[in-house]
Structures are given as structure tokens and as C-alpha cells.
Amino acid sequence: MSIVFGVDFGTTNSALSVYRNGKVDIVDVDALSPSGSLMRSVLYFDEDHQIFTGQEAINQYVSDGAAGRFMQSIKNFLPNRSFEGTEVFGRKYGIDDLVAIILKKIKARGEAHVGTAVDSVVLGRPVLFSEDAEKDALAQVRLEKAARKAGFKEIFFQFEPVAAALSYEESLPAGAEKVVFIGDFGGGTSDFTVIRVKGGAFARADRRSDVLSLGGVYTAGDKFDSQIMWEKIARYFGRGVKYKGMGKDELFDIPHSIIYTLCQWHRIPLLRARKIREQIRLIKNAATDRKAIENLEHLIGDNYGFFLFQCIEKAKCELSQHDLATVSFTERDLTIREDVSREEFETINRENVRKIAACIDEVVAKSGVTHEGIDTVFLTGGTSRIPFIRSLFEERFGAAKLEQRNAFTSVVHGLGASVPLFV
Ligand SMILES: Nc1ncnc2c1ncn2[C@@H]1O[C@H](COP(=O)(O)OP(=O)(O)OP(=O)(O)O)[C@@H](O)[C@H]1O
Ligand SMILES: [Mg+2]
After folding, report:
1. Which pLDDT belongs to residue 215?
2. Distance from C-alpha of 248 to C-alpha of 385, rounded to nearest angstrom
3. Predicted confidence (pLDDT) per residue in 263-295, tens digit
């Protein structure tokens, strides 16, 4: 059998595995990144149309003083029908072109590693790109198109949590059989499956009948970052500011849509539209807090949303280990130091957690297996490190059933292990 790649194109991180002679290896895709094996799923275009990916994109963006165009969480746009692409310094890029740049880079790294061209790939996909079936289908079509543009000829899809299950399966002794709940908590989506796994069965047969249920929800790490932004940071950028209507004494609220967009990192560039910037300028001149609107203008104009969200994300990750973290951020004459306690973080995310919990219960119910019938809960993905995510499972299944490891590589390893199912 020829060599096949497994590619986990994640909302936050992407990774690569190689299937060769019945064996799966994970390949480092970004020599510059602190994690080595992972590449941040980001792009940077400088003004000369040079394009950078991963850590190099971040470094270049910083050294250019954020002059070019930076993009993150591109996967989130795949199911978005109205987002067909974007224009960067006068050149048009379709959404599939943007994804293809990342996939092409990963493909090249993999080919350099194995020393030969590889044109077959198993790509991961969340259980749900979108709750709307049509958008969900559109997302996969776009991802497939991107893979083709990146040079892959044979393209297969595997559900991300099923891939994680295949990874988990390899840790079982031969002959052992278990019913496992898999929870993959990433940046964009939380994906679940209840699946029968068998030690020693290394992905040989058609496994469809082992998948007892599948489900997912569009709520994961990025939403938790947004919530911190909304509750703790957005007031520095105009949340709560009022302004006087032209020729009127009445005070109006700053449009909700502006603040809402501001709180979703990947959408901030949409605020660069000329009409919106003009609207913000008018608001500034009649605002109850002019400084906050100036901060908003700088955030949009200087393109520093990424750094702000990195500080928010850092604080969020610290809360997985500590009771208190601080969002620290300085830019021009703005200094932010906001403490967030773990308790507060949990409170402000109550609605997000409720959605996740409802989806977990639905996936268990659909499987037809009782809580007692589920032998193990295997959690993976960066967001599974958050204590309140773990506690959702402790409450339902008991702490003894929880297993957690390889937060960032079990999906990509399992994509490689899926190869014999397809080829
Ligand atoms: N220690 C931590 N505590 C809390 N969150 C964390 C931690 N480490 C990473 N994360 C979060 O995990 C997410 C990234 O995880 P991962 O790489 O599994 O996602 P992804 O595969 O890119 O996304 P998706 O699977 O949704 O497409 C980010 O939101 C990041 O902030
Ligand atoms: Mg993932």
C-alpha cells in the first residue's frame, strides 16, 4: 500500500500523520512552533503578497508591526455561505484558496519527511460543521476543494472523534472490548461519539457498525475566549458606551453588532469596512466615553485583535491550573489588567457549558447505552483541559471512568490509523 497522509486541519492547530506499511507516525509540521508537531492554523499576507503560515506567520506579523493581513480560525468560515472569500491587498482569495495554502504547506512538510510525493489523504472533519445540514455539506465540499487545490488527488473524510477513538483503541490490550464515550474539545467545535473499541483491531474492518452515536456542538475554546472578551474586556473598546444622536438630545447605545463582532476574534477584520469605520467615527464624536471608542478605532486600524485574544487565551489556559489569572495587555496608551477567577470564568460560560452538556446527554441517549454501560470516557483536544469540562463527565460517569491524554495528537494519529478503512 502506498503512503497516505492523515491531516487534522483544526480551528486552532493543524497536524499531520503518515500511514506507511501498517504503521502511523506523527510528523512535525512546524519547526518554529513551541509544540513542534502542531502548526497554528493561521495565515499572514504581507503587503508584497508573500504568504506565511503557522509560527512563521505569527513572527512575520509581529516583525512587520501588524502591517499585513492576519487570519485565524479559518475553519470557522467553512460553513458560512456568505463568506466566499476575501480580498487581500487587491487580490481575491476564495475560502478554499485560504485553506489550500495551509494544506499545501502541511503536504510539503510531509513529503519532505517521507521523501516522495503523496497524493492521498484522510482529512478530519467535525461531526457538525454547522447545525444546518446544507451549510454542513457546503463546508465539506469546500474542504475537499481546498485539498484538491493543495494537490491531493484521493481525499477521504473521517469524523474527528472517531479518529480519536481509533487512537485510544491502540492503547488497549488485544482482545479487550469496551464501549467508550469520546469527547474531542477543540477551538471551534466539541465533538462526541459513543463507539465500541477493540484492542488489537487496529482499524482493519469497516467500523461503521461500532459507532453507536455521533454528535457535536459549535461551542468550544474560541467561545470561551469570546465570553471573557465580552464580559471583561469589551468595555475598554466601547461596550456600554452611549452616544448622542445627531441633532437630538437622546442617548443611543453603540450598535450591538459592532461589540458582538469585536468579541469574535476571527470576525474583527469585518469591522474594517469603510461604512462601519465611518459609523464608529461619528459615534466617537458624540460618545459618553470617547477614549473607549478611540481604543476601538486603534484595535481595528492597527489590527491588534490577535494579540489581545492571545492574552485572553493565555489567561483562560492558566485558569485550567490556577484559581485566578490576569488578562494583561498593553498597546499605545491603553493598559488592560483584568483579573478573572475560575469561578467567574465558569459563571460567565454557564450558557456555553449548558449547550455542551445537552449535547453530551443527547449523544449518550442516542447510543442506546446507559451511563453504566459506558466503560470509559476518553477526553481529548485542548479544551478538555478545562476543569469544568472534566467535571461534566465526573458528574455523569464518575471520576474513575475518565481518561485523558494526547490532547493535541490523538485525532491526527487516528486519521492515520483510519487509512485501511478507506484504501
Ligand atoms: N490548558 C488549556 N486550558 C484550556 N484551554 C486550552 C488549554 N490548552 C489549549 N486550550 C484551548 O484548546 C483549543 C485548541 O485545541 P485543539 O488544538 O484541540 O483545537 P483544534 O483541533 O484546532 O480545533 P477544532 O477541533 O475545534 O477544529 C484552543 O481554544 C485553546 O485555547
Ligand atoms: Mg481538533
Report:
1. 96
2. 51
3. 998 888 889 889 999 999 999 999 999 999 999
- Give the distance (Å) from ligand 1 centre to CA of residue 275: 34
Residue located nearest, by CA, to atom 28 of ligand 1:
187
Cβ of 46 closer than 6 Å to ligand 1, yes or no, is no
Residue nearest to atom 12 of ligand 1 (CA): 382
What is the 147 CA–ligand 2 centroid distance (Å)? 17
Q: pLDDT tens across 16-56, in order?
A: 999 999 999 999 999 999 887 999 999 999 999 999 999 99
Does residue 24 contact residue 416 with C-beta atoms inside 8 Å?
yes
pTM of the model: 0.94
Closest CA to 368 of 211, 260, 247, 165: 211
Q: What percent of the chain is predicted at pLDDT more than 70?
A: 99
The DSSP letter of residue 229 is I
Q: How far apart are CA 259 and CA 106, in angstroms?
A: 35
DSSP 331-362: ETTEEEEEEEEHHHHHHHTHHHHHHHHHHHHH
Cell of 121: 489523504
Taking alpha carbons only, the member of 52, 38, 31 closest to residue 102 is 52
CA of 269 to the centre of ligand 1 (A): 22
Per the document, the length of the chain is: 423
Which pLDDT belongs to residue 405? 87
What is the set of domains in the chain, with CATH numbers? 4-161+413-422 (3.30.420.40), 222-312 (no CATH)
What is the torsional sign of CA 42, 386, 194, 20? positive
pLDDT digits (tens, 9 = 90+) for 80-90: 999 898 889 99
How many angstroms separate the alpha carbon of residue 97 from the centre of ligand 2?
21
Q: State which of 7, 8, 9, 11 you would mutate to test the pocket of ligand 1, scoring each by most atoms of that ligand within 8 A of its C-beta.
A: 11
